[in-house]
Design a protein that fits this description.
five-stranded mixed sheet, seven-stranded mixed sheet, alpha/beta, 12 helices
């Protein structure tokens, strides 16, 4: 077993490398992904080893990147598109919603679009305007797209490979503030035995409150669970991992035991993933709930300037406050 300690970013790099090795139809394309290796160095060294016909530096035109990838996917390739920053995806939104998401349906199942759209998302890195966004609800709301988000290096390594081998278009959200955090990665883990891509996972068992999160907020919730344990409360933390399709089987089972649920995400609360999660949990677990499902989210404002982003992002204290409030009913 080749287990190494890697950052989340390096785990993604290794996963992309493995995908390129395993399938000559895999192509990586995006702004500065080649010679530079990406602004976060996620594709570092790949163009040198696989050539500029497979790791392609594109013009600064997100709509062009996605539109080209649609044609490649129809012709049998498996393009992996990097959107350099989350806030840059909007020029490509028309292509993603009008073409990528609908082609399989429009062709009555005759055409597949096996492509991955990698998006570094979320805040916490002190970036300037348009460089810290949480656009997941736009894509999860769009029928025909699948949306996933990794939260640790092992999942990053496996999930990016699983997404690339899928015949469906997948928006792959990478928590950019966690790129440099380290964890153990089994580089020999066979995909056939890996945890399913579209399945949630309990990452910390507990008995008192169910806490649901994904991407960058999973670590925050784990830290909150550690702090809560000092006061005698055991939080069960669930990493959703897949936002569309949602897998809530673990959440339902958990809430029926704990009677309380808190949903945490960086995106604003208004019509966000938290609202959908709260609605489904209430429908399924109504007679088990001891309090309403509460949400801890970013605020309903444009993402703020870097100097005040820590006031905007959900943190340990806000999660613990919501946990406390669930016991007030």
């Amino acid at each position: 077993m080749a287990t190494e300690t890697l950052t989340l970013g390096k785990a993604l790099n290794n996963g992309l490398r493995r995908a390129l090795e395993n399938d000559p139809k895999v192509i990586i394309m995006g702004e500065d992904v080649g010679k530079l290796g990406g602004v976060f160095r996620i594709t570092d060294g790949l163009q040198k080893d696989f050539g500029d016909q497979r790791v392609i530096d594109t013009p600064l035109a997100e709509s062009g990147i996605i539109g080209t990838a649609v044609g490649l996917a129809i012709r049998g390739y498996r393009p992996v598109c990097e959107i350099q920053f989350d806030g840059f995806v909007y020029p490509a939104y028309d292509q993603i919603v009008s073409q990528v998401a609908k082609m399989h349906y429009r062709s009555r199942g005759k055409l597949r679009i096996p492509m991955v759209i990698r998006i570094p998302f979320g805040g916490g890195i002190g970036a300037v305007e348009h460089h810290s966004e949480s656009p997941e609800a736009y894509f999860a709301h769009t029928a025909g797209l699948k949306v996933v988000s990794c939260a640790n290096p092992q999942d990053a390594y496996v999930m990016i490979q699983q997404a690339i081998t899928s015949d469906d278009p997948i928006v792959f959200l990478e928590p950019k503030r966690r790129y440099w955090e380290k964890g153990q990665v089994d580089l020999d883990a066979p995909l056939s035995e890996a945890y399913p891509l579209h399945s949630a996972r309990v990452v910390r068992p507990g008995t008192d409150v169910t806490v649901l999160a994904y991407g960058p907020m999973v670590r925050t919730c784990l830290e909150a669970a550690t702090a809560a344990a000092e006061d005698g409360r055991e939080l069960e933390v669930i990493d959703l991992r897949t936002l569309s399709p949602l897998d809530l089987s673990a959440a339902y089972e958990s809430v029926k035991r704990t009677g309380r649920a808190v949903v945490v995400h960086e995106a604003p609360s208004n019509i966000g993933l938290g609202a959908e999660l709260a609605a489904r949990i209430t429908e399924e677990c109504f007679y088990s709930l001891e309090s309403p499902v509460l949400r801890v989210t970013g605020f309903d404002t444009p993402y703020p300037a870097a100097r005040v982003e820590e006031e905007y992002l959900p943190d340990l204290d806000r999660v613990l406050d919501a946990v406390d409030r669930t016991f007030g009913w």
